[in-house]
């Protein structure tokens, strides 16, 4: 399969995910600024999730540029990744609507954790198609951020039952770590 088709499909799914998330921002009943106050938690959960989806979209795009060809394993790994991304609207809405309660923050963290693991599996599937000469393998290197992120998600999930706001802080920290686009892949592709 042509990797452009995989990228186009993934872009479409990600666009739908963002659309579903924004639809959860309900129009307030009232024309005063005070009518927006109940939407603040929902907006913050949307903002964080939008940032995460944007980070994944950006890195997914770069990863596919380093991909020589797509195999069935890569297709299934990509679908697995998109499955976890597709749960972002649910986790986002539930956390925002319930003011970041313990259970909602645990589920939000679980979705973040599973999306990161699915992304790693996709990355490994791509690397295995090109073996030792893989540009992606060279670019990823030791992947410190990729190893730290799931650990922080797991800590955030555990903390959510004691101090949900602290788990939210950890989720924001991980997003901030990845907010600057990962230039490792761009650098390797520019060298070759």
TrEMBL record:
One Pfam family cited in the UniProt record for this chain: TMEM175
UniProt keyword list: Ion channel, Ion transport, Membrane, Potassium, Potassium channel, Potassium transport, Transmembrane, Transmembrane helix, Transport
Main localization, broad class: membrane
Topology within the bilayer: Multi-pass membrane protein
Catalysed reaction, written as an equation: K(+)(in) = K(+)(out)
Annotated localization: Membrane
Domain of life: Bacteria
Residues annotated as transmembrane: 12-29, 35-55, 75-96, 102-122, 151-180
Similarity comment: Belongs to the TMEM175 family.
Protein name: DUF1211 domain-containing protein
